[in-house]
Write a structure and sequence with these properties.
The complex is a heterodimer. By secondary structure, chain A is α+β, with helices and mostly antiparallel strands. In chain A, 20% of the residues lie in helices and 26% in strands. By secondary structure, chain B is α+β, with helices and mostly antiparallel strands. The chains are: A alpha+beta, B alpha+beta.
Chain lengths: 104, 551
């Protein structure tokens, strides 16, 4: 597979970098403080391809902390609230759309 | 049941320590993800959307009650209290933490369960008829040969780095419950005209992006030649199979491109050179494996015991008995299928509590044995018919006695976009909606046998190509759409279904399936003409018309 860094980066709107945390696999987002958070609301939002590339580069560099980092679209509401930009990302942040067999 | 010997026990335990060390090095940063990925895949660990997924093998679909209890324990301790039975006799856990995986593997190893070769480009878990050893009319227990193949392919150095994954399935019955025609190699044990027992060998079946039905490469191979012949196939594949393009790497593509005759000639040439090598198996090896399978001490029991006569007055019991119990080779016994397809539930999931309860019931009523079938249901293979009423009550209580086996709501579905990072669209909620639409048992019975299969992307984990009705998730401008096929089947008459028209949106899928079913009910020649036979007779046109006339 081509490394995400060699892929051409094209973004069509506000974007974040997301990945899974290495030790337990949960969904995380890259923050502006060069760390990770399990809350989308903490994510650093980028708006240009260059910023996206830079954010992805520092994310991928943390190979111990996170796996499979990639750029994902978000919607930024007028209030500033950040929402996932497509169904896949919605499911990653909000969880499965069905009732789990055993309620949490 | 099959009892592992010391060699296997040692192997499984060594594998756990090895993986424990690999995980430790990964978490400390000594191994990068690039280096680690192949190692985790070789132990059945994938990354899904929300977490790691852990796939555990259930060789030839046979579990002891002790093993099932241990799977329940893993679900409870390391996951979220449930597991998902797959179409290839595996179970998947969806929420496992990498840091805890070595412990989970160690707990499983205690009872002889492992996750070796449940992913990666190697020979995968060898699957078989889930009714092996108990189906009436079977030539011989096919698990003996599955086990031989398991031993031979486990960690086989030449076949650990194939161009792509490689799947075997074996059946020894006339009716194919193991879907051998959609496997890389399918084996059918039968008796030839001379009365000898051997294998018809099929090659190049598979689903995914380019579906193919397996073709017969050799009509008859003796048991003692099985390994050398299979190895010849694998060698030809290993040499010529494409490694440059993941979509063209499966053996089905090679067989298709060379043509079955040329492929067969290559294999024959290879085979003649090693037919009499160490791979020629002598009877003692087979006998040793045979002796490690133990069978229950069946009693002599009546076919129609009083308990059964009495219970026949209860229409709920009768509905279940007629639907979910099947003839056993021993008189007085039955095979009981446990539906993991409750109305509104995700197909193939079982909770830890259900697994524990089923293990207890297996101890009480089925000589401690459970089977896992490719339809994502379980079975108790040795139930005395006199115990059916009591067993039914207990199964009903834990929600695994929905009388819908082989009916329209007995849906095979992959995890889809709710879990899977490769998905285009969701599968599970579509299945759930369909089970609600067809919840009425009388209606479902009226419709009769009808297999609906759903995959969330073209990888076809839900076998949509071979569903009588197949549903495939695609994406259109960021929305979930679904292509619908009809006329596929996975049994001895396997066929790939035909697309009936343009994809339909998420909210329309259940309506479309209802339309197709209604068209069938109106068009069938007789009440016992099955859906799949009606499609064969009529073609897809009437169904296409019905679905798209108003859309
Ligand atoms: C994270 C979850 C999963 C991932 C990432 C995954 C991935 C894949 C991929 C990439 C393929 C196609 C490979 C190829 O054609 O060479 C495939 C095929 C297949 N998968 Fe899955 N799968 C997942 C879950 C499942 C589940 C839950 C089932 C059973 C319900 C399943 C059963 C199958 C089967 C039977 C095939 C073979 C189809 C064929 O013959 O080509 N998989 N899977
Ligand atoms: S068919 Fe596609 S969506 Fe479904 S489990 Fe397989 S890879 Fe995932």
């Amino acid at each position: 597979m081509t490394s995400p860094l060699q892929q051409k980066i094209k973004i069509t709107g506000p974007s974040v970098v997301t990945a899974n945390r290495t030790w337990d696999g949960i969904v995380i987002w890259r923050t502006a403080a060069q760390g990770w958070s399990a809350e989308l609301s903490d994510a650093a939002v980028v708006r240009t391809a260059d910023d996206a590339r830079a954010l992805l580069a520092e994310s991928v560099a943390d190979d111990v902390g996170a796996i499979g980092a990639y750029i994902a679209p978000v919607d930024v509401r007028d209030t500033g609230t950040v929402k996932p930009g497509n169904l896949r990302e919605h499911i990653r942040s909000a969880g499965v759309t069905i009732d789990l067999p055993v309620p949490a | 049941m099959y009892a592992y010997d010391e060699l296997d026990r040692t192997l499984i335990n060594e594998r756990v320590s090895e993986f424990r060390d690999q995980v430790k090095r990964r978490l400390s940063g000594e191994l990068t993800e690039d280096e680690f990925k192949m190692l985790r895949l070789q132990n059945g660990v994938y990354l899904q959307l929300h977490a790691y997924m852990f796939r555990v093998a259930i060789p030839y679909g046979t579990l002891s009650s002790e093993q099932l209890r241990r799977l329940a324990h893993v679900a409870r301790k390391y996951d979220r209290g449930y597991g998902h039975f797959t179409t290839r006799q595996n179970i998947q856990f969806n929420w496992i933490k990498l840091a805890e995986l070595p412990d989970a593997l160690a707990d499983l190893a205690d009872v002889g369960i492992h996750a070796m070769q449940t992913s990666g480009n190697n020979t995968r878990n060898v699957t078989s008829d889930q009714w092996a050893g108990v189906a009436p009319g079977e030539i011989e227990d096919p698990r003996i040969w599955s086990e031989l193949l398991r031993q031979y392919t486990t960690l086989h150095p030449e076949f650990s780095f194939l161009p792509r994954k490689f799947k075997f399935a074996i059946t020894a019955s006339e009716h194919d419950r193991a879907a051998i025609k959609v496997h890389d190699i399918g084996l059918r044990l039968y008796k030839n005209a001379a009365g000898e027992t051997g294998f018809e060998v099929l090659v190049g079946g598979g689903l995914g992006r380019t579906p193919f039905i397996g073709k017969t490469i050799k009509q008859f191979v003796h048991g003692h030649d099985l390994l050398s012949y299979v190895e010849a196939i694998l060698r030809v594949y290993n040499q010529y199979g494409r490694r440059d393009n993941i979509y063209k790497a499966r053996i089905k593509i090679l067989v298709h491109e060379l043509g079955i005759e040329k492929f067969a000639r290559e294999v024959e040439e290879e085979w003649l050179q090693m037919r009499d090598s160490a791979l020629a198996i002598d009877d003692a090896v087979i006998e040793d494996i045979r002796s490690r399978f133990t069978y229950p001490a069946y009693e002599q029991l009546p076919h129609m015991p009083d308990e059964l006569k009495k219970a026949a007055h209860d229409p709920h019991f009768e509905a279940w008995r007629k639907n979910s119990t099947f003839p056993h080779k021993v008189p007085g016994y039955a095979i009981v299928v446990l539906s993991l397809k409750p109305v509104g539930g995700p197909p193939g999931d079982a909770t830890a509590d259900q697994m524990d309860a089923i293990a207890d019931l297996a101890d009480r009523y089925s000589f401690g044995e459970i089977r896992v079938g490719h339809e994502q249901n379980l079975a108790l293979p040795h139930v005395a018919r006199r115990d059916l009423p009591a067993l039914w009550k207990a199964l009903d209580k834990i929600g695994v006695a929905t009388p819908n086996v082989n009916l329209v709501s007995d849906i095979i579905a992959c995890p889809g976009l709710d879990y899977c990072s490769l998905a285009n669209a969701r599968s599970i909620p579509i299945a759930q909606e369909l089970t609600r639409r067809f919840a009425n048992h009388d209606t479902a019975n009226l419709i009769g046998r009808l297999h609906v299969n759903i995959s969330g992307c073209i990888n076809a984990c839900g076998h949509h190509h071979v569903g009588h009705i197949g549903i495939l998730g695609v994406e259109k401008n960021g929305e979930e759409f679904y292509q619908i096929t009809v006329g596929g089947r996975a049994d001895e008459k396997a066929e790939v279904g035909t697309l009936i028209g343009p994809a339909v949106p998420y909210g329309e899928v259940a309506n479309v399936v209802e339309d197709i079913v209604e068209a069938y009910l109106a068009l069938r020649a007789r009440p016992d003409e099955l859906f799949i036979d009606a499609v064969k007779r009529l073609g897809v046109e009437p169904f296409r018309e019905r679905v798209y006339a108003t859309r």
